[in-house]
Amino acid sequence: MDDRTDPRRNHPLVMENRTAMSFQVRREVFVSREVLEREQHALFDRCWMYVGHASELKAPGDFRTRWAAGRPIIFCRDRAGEIRCLINSCRHRGAIVCREREGNARNFYCMYHGWTYNADGGLRNVPGEEAYPPSFDKTKMGLVAVPRLESYRDFWFLNFDRDAPDLVTYLAGAKDYIDLVVDQSPSGRMEIIAGVQEYDIKANWKLLVENSVDDYHLVATHATWLNYMRNSGVNIAPPKGSGLLLATKGSGKDLGNGHLTTDNPNYRGRPVARWISVYGEEAKADIDAIRAELVARLGEARAARVADTNRNLVVFPNLVINDGSSVTVRNFFPVAPDRMHVTAWALGPVEETEAQRARRLHAFLTFYGPGGFATPDDVAALENVQQGFAAWRDVEWNDLSRGMARNDEQLDTDEGHLRVFWRRWNELMEEAA
Amino acid sequence: MNTPFTDAVSRAEVEDLFYHEAELLDGWKLDLWLELLTDDATYYVPPNDKPDADHRYTLFTIADDMVRLRERIIRLKDPNCHAEYPPSRTRRFITNVRVTAVEGDTISASANFSIHRFRRGGTHQEFVGQYRYQLERQHGMLKIAERRAILDAEELGMLGSVSFIL
Fold this sequence. Notes:
The complex is a heterodimer of chains A (433) and B (166).
Chain A: H1 7-10, E1 14-17, E2 22-26, H2 33-44, E3 49-53, E4 62-68, E5 71-77, E6 83-87, E7 102-104, E8 107-109, E9 116-118, E10 123-125, E11 148-152, E12 155-159, H3 167-171, H4 174-182, E13 190-201, H5 205-213, H6 218-221, H7 223-231, E14 251-256, E15 259-265, H8 284-298, H9 300-307, E16 309-315, E17 319-323, E18 327-336, E19 339-349, H10 354-367, H11 375-388, E20 397-399, H12 416-432
Antiparallel strand pairs in A: 1-2, 2-20, 3-12, 4-5, 4-7, 5-6, 8-9, 9-10, 11-12, 13-19, 14-15, 15-16, 16-17, 17-18, 18-19
Chain B: H1 11-26, H2 30-34, E1 37-45, E2 62-64, H3 66-77, E3 89-103, E4 106-119, E5 123-138, E6 141-151
Parallel strand pairs in B: 1-6
Antiparallel strand pairs in B: 1-2, 3-4, 4-5, 5-6
């Protein structure tokens, strides 16, 4: 195709020039409905999308209703104990068949005409069935299962592309970072803690991808959180003469397939297992014991990897697992170019004692969530950015070149890992154009 | 249930406390507001999906002990508290005030609230729910030992963050 007639070449959404060391993203991608529609086909209909954690479905018949990839979903465990993912829409005329947030059900009953489905989705009962013609085959009228459903270490993902590579292949290097989270549990079993945080941000969903791993913003956006840490006796000062913005030297990493992470030596405490003054003196011995269990099970080096580093992981395109001052699993989805729904949970080892669990939740709330000391300022920043994008025709480009001149590894406060996301995003969007 | 008849407290006294508190919070007189609390007071906003849960086992929106609550006030007064800078304008309506129990020195009281929050650019949010308080009498004054703001919304949704004191 001639350069002049190929709209992708004439109107690139992401522009990278490695020689000139520039990397720009067109602001149009945050405001355009056409781009959002293309993202649906290019990303959400093709990528593995997080749907839930096995611990949310403890007993046969347990279900959770939620949205994934823009569809209403029943995430459930059938009577035989198998985890399933059904599209929550009656085969008859489309109504949502399961309207509760969560529960345990023997069957799903459609309130419109009374069709009843088994917990595995099979159609059990149709009122007045005799009125249907002979071609009506009840065995083929069960709730539609999502085309692909696979899990890695209890994290369940669905895919609407039947031809997608398997989940483990897709996850690539992100697997190792999920392992680091799960290794906190002596039995390798983590659980979603009750209490979900669901909030909207009046901003494009990709801004939360960037924000979740962008450590450059910490000093300005989270000045009051850093102040709180300082007031609590935590050393947050960057080492003198280091040129660093934060207390430790972290890095930003490319994990393949668009996945990325920060990987930072911890300074802000970890329930597993790095004590800081905020936890109180009485917690010291307990944290030491958690640490000793890690070392006995994993060895010194791996224990240090698990306990002494913070990692904010993006599983492309829209799952974030922040393993920082607590663990949060955060999923988000666009409902408009300038608005997203965010769902966030806390994750912890199933073995935790009451005191350990309380400490984890306390640590979570200090930073994360809509009532935390940090997340509300992130939300404010993203909404502020979105407002600035009203001038997208006049100020066309975002600059993401930070760190490009660095020859060694990219710092967490550089933008190398953000560029990983954008390259993959652009690749998939161009394929779908 | 009728309000228990008691010499310990009258509903009017509890109402006076709630209305005074509302005025201080709407006026961003946050240090004066702290003086209404006991030295070991707690402040909870339960998660929308588990309004009756215990913060030790459940992820709350806010679960502050007094140490963190004092830090929250330091944060709210700081221009770097971006979510509340400039401070949002709020107006709270408090109704259905009840004294629900009196046990020893502790008085339980509840009220309904509707808190309107305005920000520049046309933002108007309404936080609706119920307060549940534990009050204690100290040197003749009613003090707040625990305050729980339970939101009625099924999810925060367009309420976004809970960045001010509910």
